[in-house]
Structure formats: C-alpha cells, structure tokens
Design brief:
This protein has 449 residues and is an alpha/beta fold. It contains 20 helices and 13 strands.
Length: 449
C-alpha cells in the first residue's frame, strides 16, 4: 500500500511514520512519498525518517519529490498536511489580529479566517489533482483549518476526503481514564465542528458516566480541559468542551494574555523550527542527530502548547499525562486500517453532515463519531445540540461558508463578510481593516477584489 504525504517536509511527519513502523500486519503501508515545495525541508525530514527506520528491516521505503503529480501517482492514501504561507504567515495572522484587539489563533477567529482564505484555493486545486491523477485514493486531511478545508476538498472528492484532528481523541482518552475505563471500551458522545465541539456523555458498558465526573471537583480539575475551564463552568454546561472553546468562553482574557506575551505562538514555532531544520539539514550529519533534534523540538513545542490559555486559567505548566502522544498519527493509522482492510472502527472525524445535525445542511462538514469500514466513514446519529451550542456552531459555520464563497468568487465583499460574521470579530469596520491588513501582508490573497 502506498501513502503520499503532502506537506511532507512538515514537522508532524515523523509522528505518522513512527506509527507506520509499528504496523507489521499484511497489507500495511510499504512505501511513503513525501511531497513539499521546499526541497530543504524535505531533505531534513527524510533524514529524521531514516533515523527512525534504522535497524527496522521492514520499514516503509521513503522517497521525496517536489512534483505534485509524481507524488500522487499510484497513491492509495493521501495525507494533506500543507501550510500555505508557512509559519511566517501564521505569525503575521496573529500579529495583525491582535493589533485590532481580536484573536489571531490559526484556526479560531480572524486568524483562522485569514488562513482559510489563502489555503482553500490551494486545497481545491490539490483535490482536483487527486481526482485526476489518483482517483481511487482516499484523502485524509490534516490541513488547518481542518473543517473548512475538508469541506472545500469534498466539493471535488465527495466522501473520499475525511478530516482528522487529535483534540477530541485526546479529550475522550483523558476522561475515560479518569473514570477508570480503557478509552477503547468507552463510547464518546462528542459533537460539533472542528475545534468547536463538546463531550456530552461517555458511556461505559451502556451507562453514561459523565455525570459522575461532573459531580467531582477534584477529578474535574485533574486533567487539562478541567483545569482550563474550571469545575463550576463545566457543571454549568453539563459537558466537557474541546480545549479550543477556551478562546470563546474566555475570549477577552485570552486576547489580553496573547497581546502581553513576548511573542505569538506562530512566531515562537517559526523561530523554533528554523533552528530544527537548520540542524537536521546540515551536510553529513551523524546518525541519529536529526531524530534527536526533532525529539527535542517536539518536547518543547508540546510543553508550551496553549501556554497563554493556561496562564489565564492560572493552572501553570502542562502535566506529564497531557504531553502523551497518540493523536493524529494513531487516528490516521486506525482510519487507514479500517478502510484498507475493512477493520471496522469507531473514530471521531470530520465528515459531511448528511442530516446528522438538523441545524446544518447535508454538505456541511461536522466533527462527530463515525463508523468506518471499507466504504469510508459514516457519521453516527447524535442528539440535537443545546441552544447555546447551536448559536456557536451555526455562526461559525456561516463564517466558514463565506470563506468558501470568497475563495471561489474572489469577492472582497464575501471575505469581509467571513470576518464580520464570526462571533469573535465584533465589528464590520474591524473586519474590513483585518482584510486590508491581511491582503497587504499575504500575496496569496491577491485574488480578492
């Protein structure tokens, strides 16, 4: 089986390759093609993967290319993990938004909209190239903002594109373990959009154990989301929100913390990864040095994740249990196995709604539990959203739809509407200034007129 990774020079690639190294079953991935426009990043990442594969006789072969059609040809699965504009672009998105007093996070609010506006046209072109060059391939989308990008690619690929995210998986795993259950034995009632969802129940042996957790202050504040939101607010909601909802529920406090930070998250990652690629890309490195550099960089990246949000909540550094790996790569591997081998699985994925949530149309991409088999991912019926969640889900989806419309029409008016309709952008005038600032910064937004 052949896997192509678009954005193959990206920092998360070793997580995926490491998961593949542990899969020895018949029909496993035997060849990985890395595609990236940056040959230097490809060279550095190929060295990391070579270090990972050292001493493993049946490790998947790795090739790298800067030719997209060559990368796609013959692929059974395509992982899309691109970053249009790079981390320099993310840093600019954050800086411009914060100057206007609004959030600039890469998937939430103004930053997510800016990122979507420059990513959707590229994602649509990739989807067209996949449909033409590898029509039987399944596309697994890692590219952020994952919901809107998956929806854009589905216009060309239908249900053969599936979006994944590790946030719901990590949240469900932490709750299950707190309740004394193995995560694989628990049914997680999770519903929403990408980076905008809630765990509303967790069934173990047919019994919903979430109320037991919500009644226990000590248990509630012993895991990352509980510490972020606080026991009182979680009991008020009667649910455990995805960590990204902290940007909504504590928006004013979070914006202030980000404005006061020494540098934005994007700027930190930009500088950090420059150092990693310079070290991993040195001529003739000693065996193991590229992987060691990657490990050090990843540990620092994970330890500082959402640091400003934790500062707002007053909870200090991340706990060891919150640093545990097992996100994107395990979801991706389970998804591939379920489709390629018909090993049926239940996974929380980004898929087309198909009537699952009555407040959204059939083509809207949502994030819900799905049954996965050789025919793809099938969303499971869920209870209706509570009214407070309906408001957030529908307003954010409306903003996403305007991103898709602007990317298709090139209309400045549609792009302004995308910003203005988002619940974290509080003024049409601010929306116009945001677009002006982003258009001046990003050549990739030159299509907007």
């Amino acid at each position: 089986m052949r896997l192509t990774i678009l954005g193959g020079g990206g920092f998360r690639v070793p997580l995926v390759y490491g998961a593949l190294l542990g899969d020895h079953a018949e029909g496993r991935v035997s060849h990985v093609t890395l595609y990236d426009e940056d040959s230097g990043r490809l060279r550095a990442m190929a060295r990391v993967l070579a270090d990972q594969a050292a001493g493993i006789a049946d490790a998947p072969a790795v090739t790298a290319t800067t030719d997209l059609d060559e990368a796609l040809r013959g692929a059974d699965f395509v992982f899309s993990a691109i970053r249009v504009g790079g981390l320099e672009g993310r840093a600019a998105d954050e800086r411009i938004a914060l100057a206007e007093g609004v959030l600039g996070q890469e998937t939430v609010g103004a930053g997510g909209i800016a990122y979507g506006l420059r990513t959707v046209p590229v994602a649509r072109e990739i989807a067209r190239r996949v449909a033409r060059t590898a029509p039987e391939a399944w596309v697994i989308n890692f590219t952020n903002p994952a919901g809107v990008v998956t929806e854009a690619m589905a216009e060309e690929l239908g249900d053969r594109v599936i979006g994944i995210c590790d946030s719901p998986v990590g949240l469900g795993r932490r709750i299950a373990r707190l309740l004394g259950a193995r995560p694989e034995d628990a049914w997680i009632d999770y519903v929403g959009l990408n980076h905008l969802g809630w765990v509303r129940g967790l069934r173990i042996g047919g019994r919903d154990e979430l109320p037991r957790l919500l009644a226990d202050d000590r248990a509630l504040e012993s895991f990352e989301e509980g510490r972020l939101f606080g026991a009182e607010w979680l009991r008020s909601l009667g649910a455990i929100p995805n960590e990204y909802l902290h940007y909504y529920y504590f928006n004013r406090d979070t914006v202030r913390a980000y404005q006061e930070a020494k540098q934005t998250r994007g700027a930190f990652l930009r500088d950090q990864q420059r150092g990693f690629y310079a070290e991993a890309g040195r001529p003739d490195p000693a065996p193991g040095t590229a992987l060691a550099a990657w490990d050090r960089t990843r540990a620092e990246r994970e330890a500082t994740y959402m640091a400003e949000n934790r500062e707002v909540a007053g909870v200090g550094e991340r706990e060891e249990s919150d640093l545990e790996s097992g996100g994107y790569e395990k979801v991706a591997l389970a998804l591939m196995r379920a489709i390629a081998r018909d090993e049926r699985a239940t996974l929380i994925l980004n898929v087309r709604n198909r009537g699952t949530l009555s407040v959204l149309d059939a083509e809207a991409v949502i994030e819900v539990p799905c049954l996965v088999d050789a025919n793809g991912a099938h969303p499971v019926a869920v209870d209706p959203l509570p009214l407070h969640a309906v408001g957030l889900v529908t307003s954010v989806k409306a903003a996403e739809r305007e991103v898709l419309a602007a990317a298709a029409s090139g209309s400045r008016a549609d792009a302004v509407k995308a910003f203005a309709l988002h619940p974290l952008v509080d003024s049409v005038k601010v929306a116009r200034r945001l677009l002006d600032g982003y258009a001046a910064e990003h050549p990739g937004l030159g299509y907007l007129r």
